[in-house]
Amino acid sequence: MRLVLVGPPGAGKGTQAEFIAAHLSVPKISTGDIFRANVSQATQLGLEAKRYMDAGGLVPDEVTINMVRGRLAEPDALDGFLLDGFPRTVPQAVALDKMLTDSGSTLDLVLELVVDNDEVIRRLSGRRTCRGCGKIWHVEFDAPKNEGVCDRCGKELYQRDDDKPETIAERLKVYARDTAPLIDYYGAQSKLVGIDAEGPVEDVTERAIDALRSYSA
Ligand code: AMP
């Protein structure tokens, strides 16, 4: 299956993407994770992307599209994938459609995680990420036993620079302006399924899997 997950920052895309990808046995491809890995390895791509990420903006389409084109050509993605955080603009969506058409395939479904704005702000400001395994925690909703330490691997937790309050406001603005138009774009292709993404993580996963089941039925 070829899937895209969309939703505002803080909708839980990263968390849900892990569960859904495991359920479908497809690779989860997160552009944010790829950029962050490049930033921590100080690659050329990472140095370029960091400027935009730290300011709460988007990495330019051309850079992002080329990166995704390369990733989708890897063997593990040939039979299916779950894209988390891509596309984030209409030109990226058009480029993705073209990449897939050129390789004789198509997108099956776009899952939209629907969450209201206040909830998004609460989620992002309390989010902490593990430096070791990348697991996402939350100081209020999903706190580890020992503050600041990952229960899974024992490494330190950190707050992403782009989860600081000023940057959150900018990211929400960018989402409304550049990414929300994808809802109409995929709606017009009849590929969009909206999922209520509030409430416990497991309930949201179940709603997503139910939606996929109705699609394949
Ligand atoms: P995420 O982890 O998905 O929230 O992504 C973190 C940051 O990486 C975003 O705020 C952007 O700066 C950058 N980024 C991730 N995906 C994209 C994309 N598809 N297009 C442009 N920038 C992106």
Keywords:
5-stranded parallel β-sheet; 3-stranded antiparallel β-sheet; alpha/beta; 49% helix; 217 residues; binds adenosine monophosphate; globular; Rossmann fold
Overview of this structure, please?
By secondary structure, the chain is an alpha/beta fold. Helix content is 49%, strand content 15%. It has nine helices and eight strands. A five-stranded parallel beta sheet has the order 2-3-1-4-8, sandwiched between helices. The structure holds adenosine monophosphate (AMP). Adenosine monophosphate binds next to helix 2 and helix 3.
Task: Tell me the layout of helices and strands.
Elements: E1 2-6, H1 13-24, E2 28-30, H2 31-40, H3 44-54, H4 61-72, E3 81-84, H5 90-102, E4 109-114, H6 117-125, E5 127-130, E6 136-138, E7 157-158, H7 165-179, H8 181-188, E8 192-196, H9 201-216
Helix pairs in contact: 1-9, 2-3, 4-5, 6-7
The protein binds adenosine monophosphate.
What's this entry about, in short?
This protein is α/β, with parallel strands linked by helices and 217 residues long. The protein is built from 9 helices and 8 strands. The chain has helices at 13-24, 31-40, 44-54, 61-72, 90-102, 117-125, 165-179, 181-188, 201-216; strands at 2-6, 28-30, 81-84, 109-114, 127-130, 136-138, 157-158, 192-196.
